[in-house]
Design a protein that fits this description.
four-stranded antiparallel sheet; five-stranded antiparallel sheet; 4 helices; globular; alpha+beta
Length: 184
């Protein structure tokens, strides 16, 4: 019995640890450095039917310009179609931020079992979330609405992400090495 309990606790700890990470990679095809949160589960509820993750993403181009996005991942929602226009709203300590879905210039790869929505955001929104006491989100569909409140752990992930990637100016990716360049 003790072994099973320890194994279950270890599995739960591993699952939570897996939900709290960031990636840093270079997309060679678009020559963009990507710094992204992954699997930042909003509520941390074990038995919820729909899992929602809110992640931050920064894409830095070779010329030093950067784009910032909020990525909203969710498990499939039965009969849910995203409403047109500003369908995503965040209430950050009462301040309202609305977003319309967009595409990233670089490829956004969804995790297996999740649908990913991309919303362009100002870096200040990341800071506001990281310093907030209360963050709520609403995702509007054509016939239903999904509302969640971010858990403290989810807000802390935004703070950890900012501390990790926003302490110094972003480095642009180095120029890609092509086969022609290697021959010369």
């Amino acid at each position: 019995m003790k072994k099973e309990l320890l194994l279950t606790a270890a599995a739960a700890t591993a699952l939570l640890a897996a939900c709290q990470n960031t990636t840093h990679r270079v997309d060679r095809f678009d020559n963009v450095r990507i710094q992204q949160m992954e699997a930042n589960n909003v509520t941390r509820d074990w038995f919820e039917k729909v899992v929602i993750c809110l992640n931050a993403r920064r894409e830095v181009r070779a010329d030093g310009t950067a784009d910032h996005f909020l990525l909203l991942e969710h498990t499939p929602i039965a009969d849910f179609t995203l409403a047109p226009g500003e369908s995503f709203t965040l209430l950050v300590d009462g301040a309202r931020h609305t977003f319309a879905p967009t595409n990233s210039p670089s490829a956004v790869v969804s995790r297996p079992g999740f649908a990913t929505l991309t919303f362009r955001a100002a870096p200040q929104v990341f800071v506001d979330i990281a310093n907030a006491r209360n963050v709520e989100l609403r995702l509007k569909g054509t016939s239903s609405v999904l509302e969640k409140r971010l858990a403290r752990a989810s807000v802390k992930e935004f703070k950890a992400y900012l501390l990790r990637y926003y302490q110094k100016p972003p480095e642009p990716p180095s120029a890609p090495v092509t086969k022609a360049a290697k021959r010369d």
